[in-house]
Design brief:
38% strand; eight-stranded antiparallel β-sheet; globular; 168 residues; alpha+beta; 8 strands
Length: 168
């Protein structure tokens, strides 16, 4: 797995956070698109897309598959707020705010994925989300490289906790 730069963040108005990640992926845009913008690709690294209407204004419901200690899953429902096939998928959902995947083709078989997440919350939530997205992007890299689909039933917070400590 390649190492990618840490995510960055900026805070405005006290509690409005904007997180950014830029991943240089040695995979064609159609493969990356399938992973970030289809119900078949999302569960392998992020969340089940219980609903995903692929158009601006369409409904979206993402259900994170790594359960909390009590067995509860995070469910985020909302709207597709930007959609440009194989280029931009943006979802504005409860819990996570606006999440945007912007793909740029580089040559024949590489893609730059620029990700942003804008949400309101405490600084603790900002750190949680930086670590969470970073960990999910590691899983995305594995999925794109052909690793087996993430076994969410055996997921533990160990890697997330390590990343969160590094983001502090």
């Amino acid at each position: 797995m390649s190492e990618f730069p840490r995510g960055t963040s900026e805070t405005r108005d006290g509690d409005l956070h904007l997180l950014r990640f830029e991943l240089h992926l040695p995979h064609p845009a159609d493969a990356v698109w399938a992973a970030v913008a289809t119900p078949e690709g999302l569960p392998g690294w992020l969340a089940a897309a219980d609903v995903l209407e692929p158009r601006i204004g369409g409904a979206v419901t993402l259900r994170w598959l790594n359960a909390e200690d009590e067995g509860a899953h995070t469910v985020a429902s909302g709207t597709v707020t930007a959609w440009d096939v194989e280029r931009v998928a943006e979802y504005t959902v409860s819990v996570h705010g606006r999440i945007r995947f912007h793909l740029e083709t580089v040559g024949v078989s590489s893609t730059v994925l620029r990700f942003t997440n804008e949400f309101r919350g405490t600084d603790e939530v900002r750190l949680d989300n930086l670590a969470g997205w970073h960990h999910h992007f590691e899983l995305l890299e594995r999925a794109l490289a052909g690793a087996p689909v993430t076994d969410w039933s055996s997921w533990t917070p160990d890697r997330w906790e390590q990343l969160r400590a590094e983001y502090v």
